[in-house]
C-alpha cells in the first residue's frame, strides 16, 4: 500500500511541483517517522531535489524546521545550496530573515555559501 509521501511524489512527477503540493509534501515529511523519511531520501533522488528547490523558493517553514532536525536532509539541502548563484542565495536569505528564520541551520548554510562565493553580502 502506498503512503501519503509516495502519493505526493507521484503527483509531483505527473503534474510538476506546485507550491501547494510542495507544502503538503513537507508537512507530510515532518510528520513521518525517521524510517519513512530515510526511505524517501534513498528513493526520490531528483524529485526530492525539485521539492527542496521549490520549498527553498519561498522558505517553507516545515522544510526549514526539518532541516534543523534531520542531518540527512541537511546534507541533501547543502548539496542544493552549494549550486545556487549568489543572487539566489541572497534572495533566500532575505526570505528567511523576513520569516524570522535567520537563526536556522539553513540560514547558516546560506551565509557560509555566500562567504565562499564572495556575494554582495559575503561580509555577514
Structural classification: mainly alpha
How many distinct beta strands?
0
Dominant shape: globular
Per DSSP, the total helix count is 8
Level of helix content?
Answer: over 70%
**Major sheet description:** none
Q: What is the overall pLDDT average?
A: 92
- The rounded Rg comes to 14 Å
Number of domain units: 1
> How much strand?
under 5%
What order do the helices and strands follow?
Answer: HHHHHHHH
Distance between the termini: 48 Å
What are the low-pLDDT stretches, counting only 5+ consecutive residues below 50?
none
Structure explained in plain terms:
It is a single chain. The protein has 124 residues and is an all-alpha fold. Helix content is 76%, strand content 0%. The longest helix is centred in the first third of the chain and has 13 residues, at 19-31. The protein is globular. The mean pLDDT is 92.
List the helices and strands and how they pair.
Elements (H helix, E strand, L loop, with lengths): L3 H12 L3 H13 L2 H11 L1 H12 L3 H9 L1 H11 L4 H13 L6 H13 L7
Helix pairs in contact: 1-2, 2-4, 2-5, 5-6, 6-8, 7-8
